[in-house]
Amino acid sequence: MASSMGKIESEIITKTEHSIESKTAAESAITSGIPDPELNAFGQPYPKGVVLYACTFSLALANFLAALDIMIVTTLIDDVGQKFHAYSKTGWVVAGYSLPNAVLSLVWGRLASSVFGFKPSMIISIIIFEVGSIVCASAQSMNSLIGGRVIAGIGGSGIQSLTFVIASTIVTERQRGIIIAFMGASFGIASVVGPFLGGVFTTHVTWRWCFWINLPLGGLALVIFIVFYNPYERSDLNGLLSGVFSFSKISPIKLAWFLKLNNWYRLFDIMIFQFDIVEFILSSAGIVCLLLGFTFGGNRYNWNSYSTILLFIFGGGLIVLSLIYDFFIFPSFSKVKQNIQYQPLISWKNIKRRGIMTANVTVFFICLGYMTQIIYVVQYFQLIFNSSPWKASVHLIACVVPTVFTVIICGAINGRLGWVKPITLFGVTTGIIGAGLMTLLDNHATSAQKIGLLILPGVAFGATIQGTMIGAQIELDETSTTYRSDFVSITTLNSFLKNLGQAIGGVICEAVFSASILNKISDANIQIEENKPNSSESIVSYRSAHFDGPNSKLGDMLSDSIKNVFYMALGFYALGFIFGIFTTNKKVNLKKKISDNDA
């Protein structure tokens, strides 16, 4: 028994202290200062030929799957809000997915690099995502729908984080811009297909098919990934076959292991120092409090009520405390100083680099503004012009098609010229111009305005997600002994802030719209339903049942309320522009030795 326990403990120590399963080659490359052109920073050989293309396709398909679940719900918000009589909670249909998608991004990166490995973590995340989709599709209340979205968001977090991490490791730095462009293009395509499919299902079938569709797509992505992504094996047929049947190197821990007190102490150390669980709990609780404040403010409670104010105070305080803990308290522990593998989820060592900090803050604000625009462009056509979900979603093509073309073009420019900052500056500049022009969209807009005013935000989003991720990655020191963990942390941090921006955008835009329309209804002394206080749900339901044209008095009020949401998005783009100016001036190194798979 003693030898068995010793073996189990040894395996746990090995797993938690090593960043990946095989790292000898990578360590020798860092020590010698001469990286092997055939291996990435994790000591993994670059896939070639068909295997490389299949890996890229599987990752893009998986990213498409996760992105589809963000965009497909934009056209069903009105329907589920009326069906479940809970329009004030519709922001959580988006945030319920985006919030866990954001807060767990950093944890998924740590699990993948320190415990399970990239492949098992990706498989687990897809399975969790599929389970959440089943819960959503069979939901009988708004709360159960939101619960399913949370489960799907947990899996989607792993998918979106790990696709970019894995994609960045299967090609050289020179090719990284191109493969990130493929990942960005998959998001852009999902942005086109998602609202369109959501509109078709909601109008002609049922909104539940917006979630059932994830099952066959997820199954296909899972099979392709299992078969072709096998980083530690040969790229021949035998390597592929072993990849199909390999899942994890972790040996099962016997029940007796949990009966030893010392093992619980060891597990406590792992959670505190290996996974930085304190920061995760503090930041997650803080973000949830802030979003609850935006959800309840003006609906369940008044904006100036103690409950709403306390939610904002506690939320902001917990987030600040989490950063103080990670930046200053966590590094002061003696165990952290003695073990280089113990790294905080958000490291001050990396964040204090101007290029890393500004790139990540930029993508946060751009995603915050973009998600706000996307959601209320759909609401604009549904509430102002009484368009069906399908017809409203068609208009998004003018916004999201430019995203696809932009990420592809920017990826080609990055791979050819090594440009990073020009791409970012192009993105934030077109973003603030496009957001300003979108405030002209009202109930008197012409057909040309309904198309033309939506183009620049899509261009801005595509360029920004391309430039900011690469800009943060190239700021890292490749000769550092913590480069591998830093690379995963910075890539997942970018995904974290991107998803966090989408989560906050999904809630705050509904809060601004509800507050605006309720104030206008109150000022006009209009009562929607007798003996009931006005609410955003009652206004939306009344508008749908008694549509009186886009230029009616109610139409004017709705138009002005939506315009306030667009003004808020303009403010977010302005902040993104300011931080974008100060992103890194470095270029991608195009002079590195090119391996065979670059040819």
UniProtKB/TrEMBL annotation:
<feature type="transmembrane region" description="Helical">
    <location>
        <begin position="209"/>
        <end position="228"/>
    </location>
</feature>
<feature type="transmembrane region" description="Helical">
    <location>
        <begin position="271"/>
        <end position="297"/>
    </location>
</feature>
<keyword id="KW-0472">Membrane</keyword>
<feature type="transmembrane region" description="Helical">
    <location>
        <begin position="50"/>
        <end position="77"/>
    </location>
</feature>
<dbReference type="InterPro" id="IPR011701">
    <property type="entry name" value="MFS"/>
</dbReference>
<feature type="transmembrane region" description="Helical">
    <location>
        <begin position="120"/>
        <end position="138"/>
    </location>
</feature>
<dbReference type="Pfam" id="PF07690">
    <property type="entry name" value="MFS_1"/>
</dbReference>
<dbReference type="GO" id="GO:0022857">
    <property type="term" value="F:transmembrane transporter activity"/>
</dbReference>
<feature type="domain" description="Major facilitator superfamily (MFS) profile">
    <location>
        <begin position="55"/>
        <end position="588"/>
    </location>
</feature>
<protein>
    <submittedName>
        <fullName>Similar to Saccharomyces cerevisiae YGR224W AZR1 Plasma membrane transporter of the major facilitator superfamily</fullName>
    </submittedName>
</protein>
<dbReference type="GO" id="GO:0005886">
    <property type="term" value="C:plasma membrane"/>
</dbReference>
<keyword id="KW-0812">Transmembrane</keyword>
<feature type="transmembrane region" description="Helical">
    <location>
        <begin position="240"/>
        <end position="259"/>
    </location>
</feature>
<feature type="transmembrane region" description="Helical">
    <location>
        <begin position="89"/>
        <end position="108"/>
    </location>
</feature>
<feature type="transmembrane region" description="Helical">
    <location>
        <begin position="355"/>
        <end position="378"/>
    </location>
</feature>
<dbReference type="InterPro" id="IPR020846">
    <property type="entry name" value="MFS_dom"/>
</dbReference>
<feature type="transmembrane region" description="Helical">
    <location>
        <begin position="150"/>
        <end position="171"/>
    </location>
</feature>
<feature type="transmembrane region" description="Helical">
    <location>
        <begin position="177"/>
        <end position="197"/>
    </location>
</feature>
<comment type="similarity">
    <text>Belongs to the major facilitator superfamily.</text>
</comment>
<feature type="transmembrane region" description="Helical">
    <location>
        <begin position="565"/>
        <end position="583"/>
    </location>
</feature>
<feature type="transmembrane region" description="Helical">
    <location>
        <begin position="390"/>
        <end position="411"/>
    </location>
</feature>
<feature type="transmembrane region" description="Helical">
    <location>
        <begin position="309"/>
        <end position="334"/>
    </location>
</feature>
<dbReference type="InterPro" id="IPR036259">
    <property type="entry name" value="MFS_trans_sf"/>
</dbReference>
<keyword id="KW-1133">Transmembrane helix</keyword>
<feature type="transmembrane region" description="Helical">
    <location>
        <begin position="423"/>
        <end position="441"/>
    </location>
</feature>
